[in-house]
Amino acid sequence: MTAELPTPDTTLRAMQAIVGANACRSGDADTQAYVTDYRGIYRGQAQVVVLPASTEEVSRVLQWCHAQRVPVVPQGGNTSLMGGAVPDDSGTAVVVNLSRMNRVLAIDPVNDTMTVQAGVTLSAARSAAEAEQRLFPLRIGSEGSCQIGGNLSTNAGGTAVLRYGNMRDLVLGLEVVLPDGRIYSSLRGLRKDNTGYDLKQLFVGAEGTLGIITGAVLKLMPQPRSSAVAFVAVPDPAAAVALLGEAKRLSGQAVTAFELISRPALDLVLEYLGNIASPLQERHDWMVLVELTSGTDAESLNATLMEILESGFSQGLVLDAAVAASLSDAQTFWRIREEISDAQTRTGGSIKCDVSVPLSRIAAFVEEASARVLELVPDARMVIYGHMGDGNVHFNPLRPKDQPARDFLTQWYEPVSALVDGMAHAENGSISAEHGIGVAKRDDLTRYKSQVELELMWQVKQALDPLNLLNPGKVLPAPGR
Ligand code: S2G
Ligand code: ZN
């Protein structure tokens, strides 16, 4: 016999008693922004949305919801692409939005750590580090609105993973409120701590299904003294991979970003931006944005970049290159790269396949998957771009200009995503390299995860959230599906 859920009015009053009336939102109009994802694809309903100001308040909210068996959806900047941060349409959930917990609590420049609340935006975190002449290296296009808690919950990657890793590699300590309200805190800034299971890593990438991240201790890096950026035309993806090898051989750790851009991706974003010309004179099928950063002076780093490009030219790996002659040039090159995502959203009809394969197989994968997708959807625009350097591309077939988005998107799961994910899986790759699972790819896990992997994930979920109250329906398919 399932216990009766409290009425929305009872829940609202209980939440108001914990966080205060001003930190509660109820009713469709006031909750709209919190129950719909930023692209308007995933829409749900909530009993109440609460914006707690402290870990203590989060704990009390979860204690109450746990006692009343009320499901809870944790939410940061609500920039999830997979529907992971909004409630379902049952109208039973309480959304806990962390935006008011937005303080940088401490920066220790000697220890190279920064302690933040979960609601600090990525851009605020990066600015706080910069003010102390340090770098917090996570770099993703949504940095103005995404929050550190959500970056951790989705193990966010972005354009500097090649050099600095994902959020999993950038976190040293966490504070998490568990489904029953207990507070797990390991807000320590130690690079070495071998005292039992590394519990914090359970919550990184769990998409809010095991606990609500309320604070973190993050690694800081030395600020690079110089950077060198080039927009390079290459004959094909295989040449891009070979050029990456040359870049690593000649500059070692200095390779910070290596972003593939297909011609349809470039055409799309230049059309969207409207006021920026291609950095290259000629039109090319494939390009890469290459960024080196280092502690050496700009002159020697640029010389290294030129050495890489000359070597590339001599081996037929480079067809043309525009080297940023100023910060403004570099910013323009990066703006072209970063705006591809919004250009897709504005155009509509983007089938998103966020896949990764071993770097040794990525060129063949891109070529073969492109050919096979075009057999299925001959006029699709092959918007293929992103983090080739770490084996991840956003393989996003886009609707033909003359086809309405709604028609084109009927092909999303079958046949397009099933084909592309199946090919990535066959390469021992990932069907979601960066964006996580949410609800969008939840049921795919039964196809692409082994039975043992699924059983282990269910066992972890059962151990930490036996009542399945935290972010229900996200990430894990129902057992036995
Ligand atoms: C990026 C953004 C999401 C997408 O631009 O690196 O992660 O595929 C993507 O539009
Ligand atoms: Zn990406």
Largest sheet: 7 strands, antiparallel
Q: N-to-C terminal Cα separation, in Å?
A: 23 Å
**Which CATH first-tier class of the largest domain would you pick?**
Alpha Beta
Could you tell me the strand content as a percent range?
A: 15-25%
Uncertain spans, ≥5 residues at pLDDT below 50? none
Q: Determine the structural class based on helices, strands and strand pairing.
A: alpha+beta
**What is the overall silhouette?**
globular
Instruction: Give the fraction of residues assigned to helices.
Output: 25-40%
Q: Ions, cofactors, ligands: which are bound?
A: (2S)-2-hydroxypentanedioic acid, zinc ion
Number of helix segments? 18
CATH topology of the largest domain: Uridine Diphospho-n-acetylenolpyruvylglucosamine Reductase, domain 3
- What is the domain total for the residues? 4
Mean pLDDT: 97
EC number: 1.1.2.4
Pfam family, one: FAD_binding_4
GO molecular function, one term: FAD binding
Enzyme class: oxidoreductase
List the helices and strands and how they pair.
Blueprint: H1 8-19, E1 24-25, H2 28-35, E2 46-50, H3 55-68, E3 72-75, E4 93-97, E5 104-108, E6 113-117, H4 122-131, E7 134-135, H5 148-153, H6 161-164, H7 167-170, E8 171-177, E9 183-185, H8 200-203, E10 212-219, E11 221-222, E12 226-234, H9 237-251, E13 255-262, H10 263-273, E14 286-294, H11 298-314, E15 320-323, H12 327-338, H13 340-347, E16 354-356, H14 359-376, E17 381-386, E18 392-398, H15 405-408, H16 412-426, H17 445-448, H18 451-464
Parallel strand pairs: 2-4, 3-4
Antiparallel strand pairs: 1-2, 5-6, 6-10, 7-11, 8-9, 8-10, 12-14, 12-15, 13-14, 13-17, 16-18, 17-18
The structure holds (2S)-2-hydroxypentanedioic acid (S2G) and zinc ion.
